[in-house]
Design a protein that fits this description.
Length: 355
């Protein structure tokens, strides 16, 4: 397959091609989510036997076969040498399957359904020489709930959890930053050295859900294992720009900014962008000059003013722009300047404007 064909081979094209080969799944999960609410609440995890529909497993395997053939969804930045490769998993273009999965996970884990956001959707292919017993870790802050769906699983491979040890949430943007925040004695391989983990042997067709950012976990004997991991939160965070519903929201926000007058803008709702990963205060080597920067997933970082930061802190999601103006005590005479700041932040991706 040529590079041109790879680039043009859209998700819609792959959907049509798969439709001729497999039965389209009506849903991802095949269980009553209410039956597992109490168990998840008590333990912070649940292993559900035969919880995934065979049709979805078949579709996910077919997706992986195509990805490995054309490398179109290969995530080179998430490749861990001698451990695993990762591919961005695509749900069918209408995203009904994803929405159904989000609603099911929200019920099991007590998340607010209207705020559930996808923070990751990766197929993970473990290398033949993957370390059999790597140190445990916690997922990034936005990956509050991890959902593991095996596609191929060696009999000896297991996910290990430490549900009774240190439920402190990883507040960082990555597992690596969390790990780097510790002194050597406090690293998980030292803290958990004499703790017996919970081992879950999750077979193909099963699903495991757990508190990904709060519970230490890892896969042991992972060589040749293949899993689809979906990760969610109800904090409206999309740090990898992988939630398709947030992508639609971003496009709508840009369209609103382009067509709306300032008067129209006042009646719109504002939301801090789910893709705003962080705001950082830097001190440059130019006489240690202080610079405030915003980082949006998938876009270039941009400079912020102190008033921009104050505005971001003031936004309560769903609040109308005119209410923001009133709460900030901004007189009508200064409204144009305030609205210009709203537009600038919206164009840079710091906030979304919702009609």
């Amino acid at each position: 397959m040529s590079l041109e064909n790879v680039v043009c081979d859209s998700r819609e094209t792959r959907d049509l091609r798969l439709a001729g080969r497999i039965n389209a799944p009506a849903k991802v999960f095949d269980f009553d989510p209410m039956s597992y609410v109490a168990e998840f609440r008590a333990k912070g995890y649940v292993h559900i036997k035969d919880g995934v529909t065979p049709e979805f497993i078949e579709m996910a395997k077919a997706r992986l076969e195509e990805y490995q053939g054309d490398r179109s969804q290969f995530l080179s930045e998430w490749e861990f040498k001698n451990k695993k490769q990762q591919y961005l998993f695509e749900f069918p273009e209408n995203n009904r399957l994803l929405r159904g999965a989000m609603d099911t996970v929200a019920t099991v884990t007590d998340m607010a359904p209207d705020r559930v956001t996808t923070s990751e959707r990766h197929i993970k292919v473990y290398a033949p020489k993957a370390h059999p017993n790597p140190p445990a870790h916690k997922d990034r802050f936005a990956s509050k709930i991890a959902v593991g769906i095996p596609l191929f699983m060696p009999a000896e491979s297991a996910v290990v959890l430490y549900p009774d040890q240190s439920r402190e949430v990883n507040g960082f943007d990555s597992s690596e930053d969390w790990r780097n925040s510790f002194a050597t004695p406090d690293l998980p391989e030292n803290v958990l050295k004499n703790v017996e983990p919970t081992k879950l042997y999750v077979d193909v067709g099963d699903v495991v859900l757990f508190l990904g950012s709060a519970i230490y976990h890892e896969r042991i004997n992972g060589a040749n294992a293949v899993l689809l991991y979906l990760k969610f939160n109800d904090m409206r965070l999309d740090p990898l720009a992988e939630d398709p519903f947030i992508a639609t929201q971003r496009q709508a926000s840009l369209a609103n900014l382009a067509r709306m007058t300032d008067r129209d803008l006042l009646d719109c709702a504002a939301e801090v962008s789910p893709r705003l990963v962080r705001v950082s205060r830097h001190y440059t080597r130019n006489d240690w000059r202080e610079v405030l920067m915003g980082q949006v997933a998938g876009e270039k970082s941009f400079q912020l003013s102190e008033s921009d930061l104050a505005l971001l802190n003031r936004i309560r999601n769903g609040q109308k722009v005119r209410e923001l103006l009133a709460d900030a005590g901004i007189p009508d005479a200064n409204a144009p300047e305030f609205l210009q700041a709203i537009r600038r932040l919206g164009e840079r991706g710091g906030i979304d404007i919702l009609s």
